[in-house]
Specification:
The chain is α/β, with parallel strands linked by helices and 274 residues long. It folds into 2 domains: 229 residues, 3-Layer(aba) Sandwich (Rossmann fold), CATH 3.40.50.1820; 38 residues, no CATH class. It has an 8-stranded mixed sheet with strand order 1-2-4-3-5-6-7-8, with helices on both faces. The radius of gyration is 19 Å and the shape is globular. The two termini are 33 Å apart.
């Protein structure tokens, strides 16, 4: 595919914007949905960019953005849902990928988007202090967050395929994942040890996240396949070895800590070589 793909905005509010990109030939009636990230400088919307990997495969692409770090829960949320539900109903398969704030949005909007499957990386269960008092990381974003409008138990779609990916060594992420698993028990949890937040560091350092996208394109983004992707490549990730070294040190396994740190240093040095 060459040139700029055709695009239009099925929703354009002051707070939320959705941009739809069409492939050169739309024959598969499949849609991938992505979300803007939590921004260090919120208040403006960068230009939406298509995921060309999916467009080349004949999928359409819907990108949803929020002007502020409000986790997509604001006075325009319901209007966005109303606009997108009939649009996404035209597709026979709708998949979504989200990271952190975008992962929460994928779950919260899953019913309105008619999602078939979701890859949610390090999602929150909520950011409201009354709902997750144990997790203060995003309380600064929660001033206008309506806990009822943001309630996954009420708004997420049941029967979703896919996976919730998290780093089990990030206790707050693991706790949010467990809460999500309790309200969406059919959506399996997948542990990406030492992946960080969001839990993709190991994948980014090795096969890149495009490998996960390829599993969606191939129709096999199962928990088993995604877990294997992480497991089979972690030995080539310096971040994974550093995480193992830190974990071993804190649990008194000094020999393992030294070996893991040595391996991380070797991989770092190999990466720095011309």
């Amino acid at each position: 595919m060459t040139g700029t793909p055709a695009s239009w905005r099925p929703f354009a509010g002051d707070l939320l914007v959705a941009t739809l990109f069409a492939p050169a030939t739309d024959t598969r009636r499949r849609l991938i949905v992505t979300f803007g990230h939590r921004a260090p400088d919120p208040g403006h919307l960068p230009p939406a960019e298509p995921v060309k990997r999916f467009l080349r495969a004949g999928w359409s692409h819907l990108h949803i953005q929020s002007r502020w770090n409000d986790w997509y829960v604001n006075p325009e949320t319901e209007a966005l849902c109303t606009a997108l539900t009939p649009l996404t109903a035209r597709f026979r398969h709708v998949a979504a990928i989200g990271f952190s704030m975008g992962a929460y949005a994928a779950l919260r909007l899953s019913a309105a988007l008619n999602l078939t499957e979701v890859i949610a990386v390090s999602p929150q269960y909520s950011i409201h202090p009354d709902v997750v008092p144990f997790d203060r990381r995003f309380h600064a974003d929660s001033a206008g967050f309506d806990p009822n409008l943001g309630d996954l138990a009420r708004h997420a779609r049941r029967g979703l395929q896919g996976v919730v990916i998290h780093d089990p060594f990030r206790p707050l992420d693991a706790r949010n994942a467990a809460l999500i698993g309790a309200v969406l028990p059919e959506l399996p949890l997948c542990r990406f040890g030492f992946g960080g937040h969001p839990a993709t560091a190991v994948i980014r350092e090795t096969v890149k996240f495009g490998a996960v996208q390829d599993l969606i394109l191939g129709g096999d983004a199962s928990r088993a396949r995604i877990a294997a992707l992480h497991r089979d490549n972690r030995a080539q990730s310096p971040t994974w070895w550093r995480g193992l070294a830190e974990r071993a040190a804190t649990t008194g396994r000094s020999r393992l800590a030294a070996l893991a740190q040595s391996r991380a240093s070797s991989l770092d040095a190999a990466g720095d070589s011309p």
